[in-house]
Design goal:
117 residues; mainly alpha; 434 Repressor (Amino-terminal Domain); 53% helix; 0% strand
């Protein structure tokens, strides 16, 4: 297991945030953290505690193990990986609701198997 580094963790957070086209404030809102905290993590000034790491991982659609550098980037294709489709849907609903300025309950996403096209 690799040792957690401030810069490595921050780089992964920044990379995933940008891949989702989120601002630091949007990520902070999704994760229930402050904008200052996100900035500190991304610049390597601080490392998130366990609870913050879990909230960030959920908001970014990845695992805390990836953010802690316990999983090499090549194992996840240099992009966030999601364990279940419901996590993808939940994250998408939050983001769509935020952009549209409507309550999350108003956003309906239907998922169907690929063979039903």
């Amino acid at each position: 297991m690799a040792r957690l580094t401030y810069a490595g963790c921050g780089n992964r957070i920044r990379q995933l945030r940008k891949s989702l086209d989120l601002t630091q404030q949007q990520l902070a809102d999704l994760a229930g953290l402050t904008n200052t905290s996100i900035c500190n993590y991304e610049t390597g000034t601080r490392v998130p505690n366990r609870a913050a790491m879990e909230r960030l991982a959920k908001a970014l659609g990845t695992s805390a193990a990836y953010l802690r550098e316990e999983v090499p980037a090549y194992q996840v294709g240099h992009a966030p990986y999601l364990k279940r489709i419901d996590e993808v849907v939940a994250l998408s609903r939050r983001m769509i609701a935020r952009v549209a300025g409507v309550p999350e309950e108003f956003v309906i996403i239907r998922v169907r198997p690929s063979d039903e096209r």
